[in-house]
Write a sequence for this structure.
């Protein structure tokens, strides 16, 4: 209860800060607009105001403050503008429309999920191989760890273009990017998880005369679940970033990344912010869903 | 055809060598472990080279490692300029500002239980979001040059760093804090002598996570607009020109920068948190 109150307070403070920040960010553009509409602005003329600070302008033109939250193309849109745009482009549009964020969100989400499933599957397989084969452990594991320190997302534009030039396009190139971004965190986390049973537990299975496979299914795999879920959450967030970045170099056709890019080309700030929030909501939903599955699974297993 | 067979044989030989080394008597020594990883890496490179030559893969799909190396060596001046622009100016500035601000915020937050309760879930939530998406907005605000890239990096590293530092500052036990109290230590004495050192493993964990995030942020932000220099710019324009050897050279540069950056932070961590169990052995 107390923590919910605390979270709400922090969120309210952030929103209040956002509204406050809109005023100095947008005051110049707003003053130009209200002056054109016939209001008295001190000092008159955009050229006169150029040398002045934002706060000085606000102090002399207090009447224009509400207008900074209602501009057409503000430098920083106010929270309610973003919320209205989000509502208009999700609930009020047909989901097949090119302007619907649900449509763009689905384009991104489908690539994310496909890539995530492939990346996670391969990652778990490799982790099983690493745990069972000493050679694989010694040859592959160092590289998997090093890959965590390098910005492999830089490969994304090349993958898109190269796959396009061999005739593969659409969802697959984006899914490939998502897959390799979620692959390495899953490998590293899963190896840690499969190794998490301590010597005592492994010895116990040996006294039971359990085979390697039995040890894997009955001890290692269940023990690795908390680690698996932790890395799945990292992996799905990385997959989503990969899918969004993968949409940038294709010339912005569809998807949340395309919305971001198109918005930045045409100066549609409200559109950028609503696409950004759609991506954030999507990420939060995916991570939240995984968290839910984690809680249910671990409770069924008696681990949480 | 001969090259393909050679690639296959080389792979088999490399694997056989590694199997011998890994099951040999010296398998636990550090040198052999490094050697096995190095043999694997070199084998992959060699097989890549042989396959590309053997199958005559066109350069616009996958250039051979030798071509990439030649390109890397012949365009060091361009790569260096990109490195300065993206890494030293964009990523490093943003990293320093973002991590510094996050640590200071964490110290403030730490004084109030209420703030901590409220900010930690929000911070954890934001840390999972695709923050690179703010890049077009920040490019619009701060212009095309490195300042906007630094801003993206600041936003990206702030929350992971904040969450780690706040968690670290709570790492001391009641007993240790009571001891400080019996010494009549002031808040800041207790902070600098006990809680900050105890938080160091967490702070460095955050710093290490943020090294990769900083590079990702700086490179991806350049996809949204940049001056005609920078790693992200070079990658996106070279892809457009189908100069894939340049793209790979730039990616190698980014990998090198990322690994060295991480390694440098890990080295500092070793000397600062030498007392921590994870650093021993």
């Amino acid at each position: 209860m107390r923590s919910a109150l605390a979270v709400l307070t922090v969120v309210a403070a952030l929103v209040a800060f956002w509204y406050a920040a809109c005023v100095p960010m947008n005051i110049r553009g707003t003053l130009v607009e209200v002056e054109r509409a016939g209001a008295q602005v001190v000092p008159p003329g955009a050229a006169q105001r150029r040398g002045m600070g934002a706060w000085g302008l606000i102090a002399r033109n207090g009447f224009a403050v509400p207008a900074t939250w209602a501009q057409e193309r503000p430098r920083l849109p106010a929270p309610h503008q973003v919320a209205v745009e989000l509502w208009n482009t999700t609930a009020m549009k047909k989901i097949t429309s090119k302007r619907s964020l649900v449509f763009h969100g689905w384009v991104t989400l489908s690539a994310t999920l496909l890539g995530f499933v492939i990346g996670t599957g391969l990652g778990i397989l490799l982790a099983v191989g690493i745990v069972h084969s000493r050679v694989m452990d010694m040859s592959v594991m160092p590289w998997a760890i090093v890959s965590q320190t390098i910005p492999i997302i830089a490969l994304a534009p090349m993958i898109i273009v190269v796959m396009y030039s061999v005739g593969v396009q659409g969802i697959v190139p984006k899914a490939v990017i998502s897959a390799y971004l979620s692959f390495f965190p899953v490998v590293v986390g899963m190896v840690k998880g499969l190794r998490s049973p301590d010597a005592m537990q492994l010895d116990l299975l040996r006294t039971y005369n359990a085979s390697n496979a039995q040890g894997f299914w009955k001890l290692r795999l269940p023990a690795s679940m908390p680690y698996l879920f932790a890395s799945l959450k990292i992996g799905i967030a990385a997959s989503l970033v990969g899918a969004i970045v993968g949409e940038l170099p294709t010339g912005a056709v569809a998807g949340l990344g395309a919305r971001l890019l198109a918005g930045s080309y045409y100066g549609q700030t409200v559109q950028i912010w609503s696409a950004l929030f759609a991506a954030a909501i999507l990420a939060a939903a995916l991570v939240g869903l995984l968290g839910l599955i984690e809680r249910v699974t671990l409770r069924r297993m008696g681990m949480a | 055809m001969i090259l393909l067979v050679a690639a296959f044989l080389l792979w088999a030989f490399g694997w056989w060598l590694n199997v011998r080394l890994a099951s040999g008597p010296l398998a636990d020594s550090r040198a052999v472990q490094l050697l096995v990883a190095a043999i694997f890496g070199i084998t992959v490179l060699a097989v890549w080279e042989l396959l590309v030559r053997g199958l005559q893969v066109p350069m616009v799909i996958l250039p051979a490692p030798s071509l990439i190396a030649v390109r890397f060596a012949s365009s060091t001046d361009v790569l260096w300029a990109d490195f300065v622009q993206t890494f030293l100016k964009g990523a490093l500035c943003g990293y320093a500002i973002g991590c510094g601000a996050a640590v200071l915020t964490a110290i403030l937050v730490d004084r109030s239980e209420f703030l901590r309760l409220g900010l930690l879930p929000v911070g954890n939530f934001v840390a999972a979001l695709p923050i690179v998406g703010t890049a077009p907005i920040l490019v619009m605000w701060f212009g095309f040059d490195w300042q906007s890239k630094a801003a993206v990096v600041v936003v990206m590293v702030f929350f992971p760093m904040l969450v780690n530092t706040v968690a670290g500052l709570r790492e001391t036990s009641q007993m240790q804090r009571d001891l400080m109290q019996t010494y009549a230590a002031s808040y800041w004495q207790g902070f600098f002598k006990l809680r900050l050192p105890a938080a160091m493993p967490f702070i460095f964990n955050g710093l290490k996570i943020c090294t990769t995030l900083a590079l990702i942020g700086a490179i991806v932000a350049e996809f949204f607009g940049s001056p005609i220099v920078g790693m992200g710019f070079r990658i996106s324009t070279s892809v457009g020109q189908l100069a894939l050897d340049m793209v790979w050279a730039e990616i190698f540069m980014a990998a090198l920068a990322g690994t060295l950056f991480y390694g440098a932070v890990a080295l500092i961590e070793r000397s600062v948190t030498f007392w921590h169990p994870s650093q021993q052995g």
